[in-house]
Design a protein that fits this description.
The chain has one helix at residues 22-30; strands at 2-5, 39-41, 47-55, 64-66, 70-87, 104-106, 113-118, 121-125, 129-135, 142-151. It is mostly beta strands. The radius of gyration is 15 Å and the shape is globular.
Length: 157
Amino acid sequence: MILDTHDNLHNYAGIFRGVDPQPLFHWLKTCRDVPPGQKVDFAGEKLFAKTMRQDTGSREAFKWETHREYIDLQYIVGGGEVIEWAPAAKLVADVAYDEKTDFQFYAPATADALLNMQDGLFTFLFPADGHKPLVADGSSRYVHKVIAKIHKSLLVI
């Protein structure tokens, strides 16, 4: 997991291989008015972004998840949320992995860290990062964010 501020996103260009991340990085700085639900392709199915604006809720309302093929770059553009984090190795799957959607869901677990995500922050979440997004942060009732999906073959990590 990587957690940092919008101002430092350009520092992570070096973890990409075989694709220039600058078009994505530039778009993230200008995407505030993109309607929720829109998908933008940067390298076809290997690198794309989806905008979302969703209500947050109690931690019991959401499930733990991981992804095997894609890394999430979650970039907050408004509102806020808590993303609960735990190593995927400690989570217990409660349904079969869905290859089509690249989601593995897990039974309830205790978080090892809480990421208080606000406008100005982003996080990279890797296959080893169990995460539970959309948990209410106590001050925002929604989160407006972009989730860029980066195929694992495009990163050197």
